[in-house]
Amino acid sequence: MDSGQDLYIGLMSGTSSDAIDAALVRFSDSGCELISTLAATLDAPILDRIIRAVDGTADRISDISELDVLLAQAFADRL
Questions:
Q1: Contact status, residue 32 vs residue 23, Cβ threshold 8 Å
Q2: Domains in the chain, please, with CATH?
Q3: Is the pLDDT of residue 4 over 70?
Q4: Bridge partners of 24?
Q5: Which residues contact 71 (CB under 8 A, 6 or more apart)?
Q6: What's the number of CA atoms in the CB half-sphere (13 Å) around residue 73?
């Protein structure tokens, strides 16, 4: 059954990297509507790893891969 509208959740860590930002949006044939937002603070160890990845301190592919997994787990745990 298609009601002509769909709900989507978008997740990201913004440029400040201090939180996971979430948005619930309804898309329909007539447009889109922001339903709700949430910001979930990131733990200090993950934030530190993000900073090291951005500044080049953690430049090995294994560091970036581990961070990718940690962020995915943080997204799942906090939201």
A1: no
A2: 5-78 (3.30.420.40)
A3: no
A4: 9, 36
A5: 13, 46, 50
A6: 8
d(CA 4, CA 12): 26
Between helix 44-55 and helix 61-78 the angle, nearest 10°, is 140
**Token duo for residue 8:** 């989507």
**How confident is the model over 23-54, as pLDDT tens digits?**
999 999 889 999 999 999 888 988 888 888 88
* pTM of the shown model: 0.68
Structure tokens, 51: 């900073």
Structure tokens at 15: 């440029």
| Own/partner pairs, 41-44, CB within 8 angstroms, 24+ separation | 42/13, 42/17, 42/18, 42/74, 43/74
- Which structure tokens are listed for 66? 């581990």
User: How many CB atoms lie under 10 A from the CB of residue 20?
Assistant: 21
